[in-house]
Amino acid sequence: MSSAQPKPRRARLIAINPDKPQARPSDWEGVRGLITQLYVDEDRTLKETMTIMSREHGHNATAKMYKYRIQRWGLDKNIKQPEAWEILRLKAEREAVSWYHVCGFPLLSYLRLAPIDSI
Fold first, then answer.
1. Tens of pLDDT, residues 39-86
2. Which domain of life is it from (predicted)?
3. Are residues 103 and 65 in the same domain?
4. Which of 24, 30, 44, 82 is disulfide-compatible with 48, CB 3.0–4.6 A?
5. How many structural domains are present in the chain?
6. What is the spatial distance between Cα 22 and Cα 44, in angstroms, rounded to a whole number?
7. Positive or negative, the Cα torsion across 10, 70, 57, 39?
């Protein structure tokens, strides 16, 4: 009986321009506000955000690095399926209630700190 040795994994090569220094983990907190402004507040695409950050601020990182940080910081723009079901459930629940206002204020539901009515 011979024990099968697992094959060593090859490192995945990423095309990186050696002329541009890549972003280090310590660099991300310093540019978080800029990324939030461009990607969320100005509603730019990831590609646009990456281009602006590289050209104007010297922050060079791969799309995978950006996606990881965006997800980690909770800046992702897409509504996830469980969130969509929750929105539908809350709206149906609200429509079932005969009174829509309590004390003169509309009933509001929130998702990621944004009112559901605005989504």
1. 999 999 999 999 999 999 989 999 999 999 999 998 888 888 888 888
2. Eukaryota
3. no
4. 44
5. 2
6. 22
7. positive
State whether the Cα torsion 36-39-40-42 is positive or negative. Answer: positive
> What span, in angstroms and rounded, lies between the C-alpha atoms of 25 and 28?
6
The answer on 90 and 68 residing in a single domain is: no
Count of all residues that appear for the chain in the document: 119
SS3 116: helix
**Residues with Cβ within 8 Å of residue 21, at least 6 apart in sequence:** 60
Q: Would you give the end-to-end CA distance of the chain in angstroms?
A: 62
What are the φ and ψ backbone dihedral angles of 113, each rounded to 5 degrees? 70, 10
| Domain ranges, residue 103 | 81-118
Distance CA 114, CA 93 (A): 18
DSSP string covering 58-88, please?
A: --B--HHHHHHHHHHHT---SPPHHHHHHHH
Helices (H), 1-119: 28-36, 46-57, 63-73, 81-96
